[in-house]
Design goal:
The complex is a heterotetramer of chains A (318), B (274), C (539) and D (539). Chain B is mainly alpha-helical and 274 residues long. In chain B, 72% of the residues lie in helices and 0% in strands. In chain B, helix 3 packs antiparallel against helix 8 and helix 8 packs parallel to helix 9. Chain D has two domains: 254 residues, Rossmann fold, CATH 3.40.50; 246 residues, 3-Layer(aba) Sandwich (Rossmann fold), CATH 3.40.50. In chain D, the strands form four sheets. Chain D has a six-stranded mixed sheet, sandwiched between helices. Chain D has a six-stranded mixed sheet with strand order 16-17-18-13-19-20, with helices on both faces. Chain D has a four-stranded antiparallel sheet with strand order 2-1-4-5, with helices on one face. In chain D, strand 7, helix 7 and strand 8 form a beta-alpha-beta unit. Chain D is globular and about 75 Å long. Classes of the chains: A mainly alpha (318), B mainly alpha (274), C alpha+beta (539), D alpha/beta (539).
Chain lengths: 318, 274, 539, 539
């Protein structure tokens, strides 16, 4: 456990550096954007005077470095700032959306990870066989369809034609299990298909690599059937690379799901960030970027910790 | 040709399909019976086999011509972008692998930072800032997938850097550049080729995602993803204008992967980026 | 054509709804020469004392909950009438607030919170407020609320979208327990119409925080508001229009993706949808459960040729481009007939001041060639900026490019994202597209977009003759002369201004067939965004 | 009495369908119950393939294509997967070459040891665990009660190898296959492990097949020996016959490679090339008194003269390879001094001049990893020529050919990549590359330990010739005491990072020895079959 604790401490330190880099990069590229929050706020009816006044009010006339420093100072004192677009605290805007995003991500992960693992393991067990080839084509076909098309096909079939599911993912206030199922079925299915293929291929590769290890041969020579050799012996040792691939895939579930959020009108953080870009809402944009980066780092950390937990050699610090 | 003969059936199929699409990408614009932007029919979303081979699109343009014209974007942008992403990612990874732990750490953290910025939002910002153009799309997609390439290449390069033959070169007093380019690089080229295939698919998909957000190639030109997107309202009636480009994308990505899988003998590959 | 049939059907439906007493009243008023329907409203103010839309003929059903989708939502969503800038905002504002006046289907203004709206000189307006109106929090409506609501637009800190219009207010003062006076810097007969816009809806005196709450006098009380997610309104039982509204609850959402909006409508997840694509109408009508409502409007997407930049400042170039516009094709292919051909000026044929003697400019490549040659620009390459932000502009540009090739020049299409288009590209390139929402008054339209010093003089057009005509028309009492002046102005724009307007686009809304009580109001989709107080849900 | 194990005309093929090559040709042998057969041969001789076929197993890409493999009643070559799974581990068990790789790193030892017993349902978990503990005791494992709770990486290599024997014995199988079970072990450990194996096999009256390349080891344990070369049987005879009256020339060759020679070297000492004094080295922070946090080497001194070979001997973990890295500058020494040709040599390679780098060349143990598989032989040898001596084009080509001749390889090898070369050829190239630099000292780190006996002998011979011809100094690092004894002018024995004994080769041949040196010398098996039984167990 000491190893994990040390790892976490070290990672937190490095994460701060990474987050700083992200904030600087995002601030830099966002500064390339033409226009600013004042112009976007006033839109088509902007007069130069009004823009100038609003700009002053938003503090947009400060030099970029000063604005960055101010923002950073605020963040360090626990204040993520106020959205320029609607004057609400950024933390409040994000927290309501974050729970939604996490819910979508959670359901997707719950479904996609086991699905992908089963696909990958079966393909690895029968590597080179027809099953393996069929799975290869199947997983490739899954990634080969643009997700907006996939989502639209689902909507047409299950919402418009069959009327089984709602085309929009709204969760009523007094939602029961069934409501959740209905609301999440299609977005989760879409994302599962988008993500599983990659994870399945990685799982296959990782398991296959372990299958060539002498201890698997040993297990077979001890009289273990292939399935047991794979599940009991190879799989625990493939956990490291698998969780890594899973973590990378899942990190997509925070910021990468814009399209699913748009099509199912799901209020998640990805579309919040798109709004932030559109409105030139820098505090919100920065906060979203920080959030995604943190999410990514946490996932990678979880992956590394699971790899350590799964590997007694790393676990005991040997 | 020997390579082709030694391939498994799936590889041959992949190679043939890739060859077909590359042919379309190169000669498509000349083969198109109509101009890609010309409105040829009043009826929209015409089915296959009418006056127009693959029907008409959402404003009555010839779908066949638009596919012939648009394939080159779906082939060449991803091809170049994936090549750029893999080559720069690999080069930076090589540099990182032969540099000291501190430089390596800084580069790795920077790449982590880049990975964590969602590629679609990055594209949105960049296109809003600079306006969409083929070179910019290339740059964006290349930057988006470079850190992933870097991760893989670095993992491979660090492994190779610990091999005895690199140590031998070190004891000879060779420069870092020599170690990176002459000793390590040739040994990670093959797995990076596999990574390249994967990244090609990612770029194809990112491009179609961008077209969904209205950020794709400049109209009236359209890559295959944009064709799917602009005709999506024809999906309900099963219009070939949306189905055929979707099938084209699928066959391209599957073919590239089958080809590359067979080139590396169906071997495994290392972790992937985003 | 199907579209004609549809229009006829729509008109028929509307006629049904407006038969009976209300229709008769309007007719009698019209006969008395007091109502100027579908116009720039220069009507005597006392007419506004009449309440229109009082009793819909069909028996409305009470109760029910609907979900309505507009075409956008973001964190910029607002509850502040002064900040409302997108259709979602307009709908939300009209749901919660009421104005002094409100638009009717004939493009005029009916009195709302104002019981009477009178002026002798069109400069000083006397307003008597309706009695017994209460805000959602129970407070009574007072003239002070109106004064506050109007004058806050002049406060720069409010960053009002209507600030340019509010600049006309010289003074707004309380003149009695239920009356007030608005004094303008100069006469403006269109004030009652202008005040019907959502920006000038009435808020309670002293309200500064609009981030979570909205205290209005409108048909629905705010139940939930999450910017970029949803707005829920629940029936206001104390609404000042007796018997209204009908629904218990309205949930307002934004679905940016049009095909998702259509799918949601067809799958019954939403009951009304704003802004459908003409291409979707076939599907919607075929569904059996939903239908479309078409609103003829003067919304247009125009090509802007800046007069301060080369080569667009060349009059022959401008004419050449105008002849290159294949209007029929645009109307037919891009809008599937849901558009009206325009003649390079912003007045729609349905407008009473529409100059129908001005010959329609044809699609004429030969003449375009002639003018292009005259301008010495044959073979030129000119970039044209388009964006999804200006509806239809991307495809229009593609068609223009084709005509260009025939004519002998190359338009390089530069599509830029909708994001930031209005602040960063609109009017900033020699050749680019704009998109202008319907304006009720021609005076307002011309003053905002075509006068030499207009704030959004898109092409930078400077025509002293036009400016003089505009000023004269505003003060002209004689209807025939005024009409002639507006005719002349249309001709000037069509011949000389650096904008080309190919078509006016019809607004298409989708609705569940159980939705009743809806009719087009030409200021915008979803009944000029004010459907909330009118519609009910049939069993 | 019928044979317990009989193999008849066993044929194994490898490669994809249509391109098979036969890797085992019609091998036949038979064993009585309790007999031990040794399969001996070089790598690629098919010995492991034959052993595995006794389990009905062929590695991926191979298959048993002919013959019969009878164990008791069963023909292993004709069983299906389920039948085989029922027999393996219960009736026939396997002890793999590298226990470190054959134990699953992520599961506790006990789990793995008793797995086959549980799988086959021959006993309950508690029965199996007590049986395992009993076996641990029999195999002289330390703390037999608790060792099963550890993970594989937590016990030493020798212990793992014995644990693996326990794993094989848990079901008391009729036949055990030992596949080079001691090859990866240090000599001192090997003795104990061998002894444990021998005792246990005897105790359970188990039939055993012992695969090895080391005749001396085999002599201790086998009743009969089968000599293999290229998948064919050379000779199959009882052990004493093989040892004393070998029929086949190849067998005699093997025997002679093991024969301990009493020769030693005593070259004329030249001038000192490298002078190392009081070196400390290790990892981690270096404390103020110059000791590293994790010390590997402490206070090592050594002097190498031109034309001389200094041997460094020690077991794994003694720090002998680290010493080579310190001299090469790959691991900078923490303190102490190094002189190269009487000039101060900086500890870290990055601070050394090209000339200094050129003077010291290193040859690594494993030619597979020491040669870049992506490069051609010509480039591997040519690079130091260009780098140090600026040779290019034809001159370089010429010199590469000379180097290849020097290490007795055909010159046309220059155009081939090294992937397809044999182990011996690779090691020669490895050596030639070091010579290409024309160094004054070559550091040879276990250069023969990955090679088969006969090949290793040839390499050593070459090394001697080269030294005589080129008059270079060699530091020869090895765990094989007999090789060092015959090759080196001076010998240093390392134990846990310290010098145990440092003496001339002449003295080393006769003694006296330090106790640890004595132990090392006595642990090397001889061809005398009674040697093992005469040794006292250390454990």
């Amino acid at each position: 456990m000491k190893v994990i604790f040390q790892l976490i401490i070290k990672r937190i330190g490095l994460s701060i550096i990474t987050l700083l880099i992200v904030s600087a990069v995002v601030f830099f590229i966002a500064n390339l954007l033409p226009g600013d929050a004042a112009q976007e706020m006033l839109g088509q009816s902007a007069t130069p005077e009004a823009v100038a006044e609003l700009r002053e009010a938003y503090g947009l006339n400060d030099p970029p470095m000063l604005r960055y420093a101010k923002w950073l100072g605020g963040l360090l004192s626990g204040d993520a700032g106020t959205s320029l677009a609607n004057a609400r605290p950024v933390s409040e805007l994000i927290s309501s959306r974050l729970s939604q995003s996490l819910m979508l991500a959670g359901f997707t992960a719950l479904l996609a990870v086991p699905f992908a693992m089963v696909l990958g393991i079966v393909a690895a067990m029968y590597s080179g066989s027809r099953i393996d080839k069929a799975m290869n084509i199947f997983t490739l076909s899954m990634v080969a369809v643009p997700e907006f098309l996939l989502a639209t096909i689902f909507v047409l079939i299950f919402a418009v034609e069959l009327n089984w599911l709602p085309s929009l993912s709204y969760i009523p206030a007094d939602a029961g299990v069934y409501d959740y199922f209905r609301a999440f079925a299609m977005p989760v299915a879409t994302l599962c298909i988008v993500l599983s293929a990659q994870m399945a291929r990685m799982t296959r590769a990782a398991v296959l690599e372990q299958l060539s290890q002498p201890y698997v041969e040993m297990a077979l020579l001890k009289g273990s059937p292939l399935s047991r050799a794979v599940l009991r012996h190879a799989l625990p040792n493939a956990v490291g690379p698998i969780v890594n691939a899973v973590a990378l895939s899942l990190s997509y579930l925070l910021g990468g799901v814009v399209i699913v959020e748009v099509i199912f009108n799901y209020p998640g953080v990805a579309s919040l960030m798109v709004d932030a870009v559109t409105n030139r809402d820098m505090p919100l944009l920065q906060a979203c970027a920080m959030l995604f980066c943190t999410g990514y780092l946490i996932l990678v950390l979880i992956a590394d910790i699971s790899a350590i937990v799964a590997n007694p050699k790393l676990r005991t610090g040997g | 040709m020997n390579v082709f003969k030694s391939m498994p059936l799936s590889g041959k199929l992949g190679a043939l399909l890739v060859a077909f699409w590359v042919f379309v990408a190169i000669f498509g614009p000349w083969l198109a019976p109509h101009s890609a932007s010309e409105i040829v029919a009043y009826d929209v979303f015409e089915p296959i086999g009418g006056d127009y081979v693959l029907g008409t699109d959402y404003i009555g343009r010839d779908v066949f011509s638009r596919i012939l014209d648009g394939t080159r974007f779906t082939i060449f942008i991803p091809l170049l972008a994936a090549a750029l992403a893999c080559s720069t990612g690999t080069l930076i990874a090589l540099f990182s692998a032969v540099s000291g732990p501190r430089t390596d750490e800084v580069i790795s953290r920077f790449m982590d930072a880049l990975i964590s910025i969602p590629s679609k939002i990055f594209s949105l910002v960049m296109i809003a800032a600079f306006g969409s153009s083929v070179p910019l799309l290339l740059t964006i997609t290349a930057i988006s997938y470079m850190p992933g390439s870097f991760r893989i290449a670095r993992a491979l390069a660090v492994n190779v850097a610990n091999m005895d033959f690199v140590t031998v070169a070190r004891t000879r007093g060779e420069s870092r550049l020599y170690l990176a380019v002459k000793e390590i690089l040739p040994n990670i080229l093959h797995p990076m080729l596999a990574d390249f295939g994967l990244r090609f698919v990612f770029v194809v998909l990112l491009l179609s995602s961008l077209s969904f957000l209205g950020l794709g190639v400049q109209p009236p030109e359209a890559d295959l993803g944009s064709l799917v997107r602009e005709n999506i309202s024809g999906l309900a009636e099963g219009a070939p204008a949306v189905i055929i480009p979707a099938i084209a994308i699928a066959t391209i990505t599957i073919a590239v992967n089958l080809l590359i899988d067979s080139l590396r003998g169906g071997a495994t590959y290392a972790a992937r980026g985003k | 054509m199907t579209n004609k049939r549809l229009q006829a059907a729509a008109m028929h439906k509307v006629a049904e709804q407006h038969s009976g007493s209300r229709r008769a009243l309007l007719k009698s008023l019209g006969a008395a020469g007091l109502v100027t329907a579908a116009s720039g409203l220069a009507l005597p103010a006392h007419v506004l004392a009449q309440i229109s839309n009082e009793q819909p003929p069909a028996k409305p059903r009470y109760g029910g909950r609907i979900r309505v989708a507009t075409n956008s939502m973001s964190t910029k969503d607002t509850l502040d009438p002064a900040k409302a800038s997108l259709s979602t905002d307009y709908v939300r504002i009209y749901m919660v607030y009421s104005g002094l006046t409100q638009f009717n289907r004939e493009l005029g203004a009916d009195p709302a919170l104002a019981e009477t709206f009178e002026s002798e000189n069109q400069q000083d307006w006397h307003i008597k407020l309706r009695g017994g109106v209460t805000f959602h929090d129970g407070k009574d409506l007072t003239p002070q609320d109106v004064v506050y609501s109007l004058l806050r637009h002049k406060d720069p800190a409010v960053t009002s979208r209507a600030a340019p219009i509010a600049a006309q207010f010289e003074k707004v003062v309380v003149t009695g327990p239920m009356s007030l006076r608005i004094s303008l810097h100069a006469p403006n007969a269109d004030l009652p119409v202008m005040l019907a816009s959502s920006s000038f809806c009435i808020v309670a005196d002293g309200t500064t925080d609009f981030s979570q709450t909205a205290n209005g006098t409108g048909p629905y009380r705010l139940k939930e508001f999450s910017p970029g997610v949803r707005t829920v309104g629940e029936k206001n039982p104390n609404f000042w229009k007796p018997g209204k509204p009908y629904l218990d609850e309205i949930e307002l959402v934004g679905i940016a993706d049009e095909s998702s909006r259509v799918n949601a409508l067809l799958s019954g997840d939403i009951q009304m949808a704003l802004a459908l694509n003409p291409r979707s109408t076939k599907r919607v009508r075929r569904s059996g459960t939903a239908d479309i409502m078409q609103t003829e409007s003067s919304l247009y997407t125009n090509l802007i040729m800046r007069q301060d930049a080369y080569p667009t400042n060349n009059p022959d170039f401008v004419l050449a481009v105008k002849y290159m516009m294949n209007r029929e094709l645009i109307q037919r292919a891009l809008f599937r007939g849901y558009a009206t051909i325009a003649n390079d000026h912003p007045v729609a044929p349905s407008h009473k001041y529409y100059n129908h003697e001005l010959p329609q400019r044809p699609y004429d490549i030969d003449r375009a060639k002639y003018h292009l040659k005259k301008a010495g620009l044959t073979g030129a390459r000119v970039p044209v900026f388009t964006s999804p932000a200006a509806e239809g502009s991307v495809d229009m540009a593609a068609l223009l490019q084709l005509s260009g090739i025939e004519t002998g020049m190359h338009f390089g299409i530069n599509r830029v994202p909708a994001d930031g288009y209005w602040s960063n590209h609109w009017m900033k390139h020699p050749l680019g597209f704009g998109n202008i929402n319907p304006r009720v008054s021609l005076d307002e339209l011309f003053s905002l977009f075509y006068k030499s010093d207009a704030p959004w003089n898109e092409s930078g057009w400077n025509n002293p003759q036009f400016d003089q005509l505009l000023a004269a028309a505003r003060g002209e009492g004689d209807e025939a002369k005024r009409k002639q002046m507006y005719w002349d102005m249309q001709e000037l724009i069509s011949e000389h201004c650096g904008v080309s307007i190919p078509v006016f686009m019809n607004l298409i809304d989708g609705y569940d067939k159980r939705i009743k009580g809806n009719f087009p109001i030409p200021t915008g989709g979803l009944m000029g965004y004010s459907f909330a107080e009118y519609v009910w849900l049939d069993a | 009495m019928t044979a317990h194990v009989s193999v008849e005309k066993l044929r194994v093929e490898a490669g994809p369908q249509g391109q098979e090559r036969t890797i085992v040709h019609d091998v036949s042998f038979s064993l009585e119950r309790g007999e031990v057969l040794a399969l001996i041969g070089e790598s690629g001789s098919g010995k492991t393939t034959i052993a595995l076929s006794l389990l009905g197993y062929a590695r991926p890409g191979c298959r048993i294509s002919g013959g019969a493999v009878h164990v008791g009643e069963d023909n292993m070559a004709a069983m299906n997967a389920a039948q085989l799974a029922g027999v393996r581990g219960r009736k026939v068990a396997y002890v793999a070459q590298s226990a470190a790789a054959a134990f699953n790193p992520s599961r506790r030892i006990m789990e793995q040891v008793i797995e086959s017993a549980l799988m086959h349902g021959v006993m309950s978990r508690s029965q199996a665990e007590s049986k395992a503990i009993e076996l641990f005791k029999q195999l002289s494992l330390p703390s037999p009660q608790t060792i099963g709770r550890r993970y594989p990486h937590e016990v030493s290599g020798g212990q793992l190898q014995r644990l693996m024997a326990a794993m094989a014995l848990i079901c008391e199988p009729e036949l055990i296959i030992f596949d080079e079970p001691t090859t990866a072990l240090d000599v001192t450990t090997q003795v104990d492990v061998l002894k444990a194996f021998k005792d246990v096999v005897k105790a359970y009256n188990t039939t055993a097949v012992y695969v090895s390349h080391d005749l001396a080891v085999v002599a201790q344990i086998a009743d009969q020996i089968l000599v293999l070369q290229n998948g064919r049987m050379m000779e199959n005879n009882p052990t004493p016959t093989i040892l004393n009256h070998a029929e086949h020339a190849y067998t005699r060759q093997l025997l002679s490679a093991v024969q301990d020679s009493d020769s030693y070297k005593d070259n004329e000492p030249g001038e000192v090339v490298i002078d190392i004094a009081n070196i400390d080295a290790g990892y981690g922070k270096i404390s103020r008194d110059g000791k590293p946090e994790i010390p590997i080497l402490s206070d090592i001194s050594m002097r190498v003269r031109r034309g001389q070979t200094v041997g460094i001997i020690g077991e794994s973990g003694s720090g002998k390879s680290t010493f080579a890295r310190v001299i090469a500058g790959l691991l900078p020494a923490a303190n102490g001094s190094m002189l190269l040709n009487n000039k101060e040599l900086t500890p870290a390679i990055v601070d050394r001049s090209k000339a200094e780098c050129q003077q010291i060349q290193m040859v690594f143990q494993n030619a597979d990893t020491a040669l870049n598989p992506a490069h051609k032989v010509g480039d591997i040898l040519g690079r130091p020529l260009t780098f140090f001596h600026g040779l290019k084009g034809a001159a370089r080509k010429q010199r590469v050919a000379e180097l290849l001749e020097l290490v007795k390889l055909p010159t046309d090898l220059a155009d081939r990549k090294c992937g397809a070369l044999s182990g011996g050829q690779k090691q020669r190239i490895n050596l030639a590359r070091a010579l290409a630099a024309e160094p004054s000292v070559i550091l040879c780190d276990e250069v023969t330990s990955a090679l088969d006996t006969v090949v290793a002998a040839a390499i050593l011979e070459l090394l001697g010739e080269l030294q005589a011809k080129l008059n270079i100094a060699i530091v020869f690092i090895s765990h094989d005491i007999s090789t060092v004894k015959s090759l080196c002018d001076e010998i240093m024995v390392l134990y846990k990072g310290k010098t145990v004994q440092y003496t001339s080769g002449k003295q080393f041949a006769s003694g006296p020895y330090e106790p640890y040196t004595e132990l090392l010398l006595n642990s090397v098996p001889t061809l005398d079959p009674t040697w093992l039984d005469s040794r006292q167990s250390r454990a």
